[in-house]
Amino acid sequence: MLKENRVQNLPPYLFAQIDETVDGLRNNGIDILPLSKSDPDLPTPEVIVKELIRTVQDPINHHYPKFDGLRELREAIANWYHYRFNVSLDVDKEILPLLGSKEGIVHICEAFISPNQVGLVPEPSFPAYKTGILLAGGQPYSMPLLPENHFLPNFSSIPKEVAQKAALMFLNYPNNPTGAVASKDFFAKAVHFAKQNNIIICHDSAYCQTTFDGYKAPSFLEVNGAKEVGVEFFTFSKAFNMAGWRLGFLVGNEEIIRGLKTIETHVNAGIFYPIQYAGAKGLDAVARTNFFNQMNEIYRKRRNRVVEFFNQLGWNISNPLGAVYIWLPVPEGFTSESFTNFLLEEAKVAVSPGNGFGDYGEGYIRICLTYPDMVIEKALKNIQAVLTSKIKEPTLV
Question: What is the mean pLDDT of each run of 10 residues along the chain (397 residues)?
Fold first, then answer.
């Protein structure tokens, strides 16, 4: 019998559960159409793949990498941030390459949250924010993301005693799972709140390059004073279709960067150099081309198709301006879990239940746009068949 430990306080990881369920059904011969996981179906740009192949053939790159990350990658990050956001970064002090942003998100909690300190978590949100806080022995405090507030947290609703106990706060825009976006004015309010309460802001900018209808996502670091209180995570997974490569980075406040780096030196041995060279090539040779526009046009058409489909069935949802998700209210009489199960059992379509992203996700499901058009079309056809035959006219909550 294991003694009481932090693992016992962790809920099962949502996407691992979904994978297990889908795999079990497929092993029993049931064909499941997945719309649940944001793993891009589009290929990694060829120039990035070629750079990996070129550098992996050089034995000098087969040794342990430096903890600071490859200087060529850090320089590429700095150059791209200046080009994309007009944000200047110190190559030696304000940039830290990571083994994917999720790993950094969890470890930054170990660096800056002491047992019983509070971590502010938007909800619904990517589960790793709360996971990191719990593993560090901290106490997650939920900031509700409500439709009436455009899925932005209301800082004035956070009790003063909670804010004073908070060590850090996670933000994420464009948002997973809602697709909501944030303005520089919102980030300025976040910086003001953080300065008042001595809170570190950790902005997860995973989807800053996945935007639509003329909207361009700002960097949190564009706001005056942001570097004084916070940092920003970026991942190559979504922007460059490199989900399996495990490459990301953290930029911003020098002291916070140094704190995460200290944790990183104890828990991993760096990032394989060829992957870092490939990431640098992506930022130098791909990010300033028409690549993102071309990719976003594919996602935009998928977004429009899915939104139009559900609106024709009785929903009234708007086109999100960012990320790769449709945040869909469930029909009356269903919970997030029961509607997810209904679609899985009746339509053979896997989606993510909203409550898997926190209690304030109850009443929704999340649909991903990171699947080929033919998969999405077949899934929508199956959904239409079961909704019209089993529910007739969906009544929405």
Answer: 58 63 68 92 97 98 94 98 98 97 96 95 97 95 97 97 97 98 98 98 98 97 98 97 97 98 92 98 95 98 98 96 98 94 94 95 97 97 90 59
CATH topology of domain 46-286: Aspartate Aminotransferase; domain 2 (3.40.640)
Q: Which two tokens stand for residue 309?
A: 């489909």
Query: What is the rounded distance in angstroms from the CA atom of residue 382 to the CA atom of residue 386?
Result: 6
- Reported for 296-300, long-range contacts at CB under 8 A and 24+ positions apart, including other chains, are 296/209, 296/210, 296/211, 296/212, 298/42, 299/210, 299/212, 299/324, 299/369, 300/212, 300/213
Q: How many residues does the chain have?
A: 397
> Domain residue spans in the chain?
11-40+291-391, 46-286
Q: Report d(CA 370, CA 38) in Å as an integer.
A: 6
Same fold, 11-40+291-391 and 46-286: no
Domain 11-40+291-391 architecture: Alpha-Beta Complex (3.90)
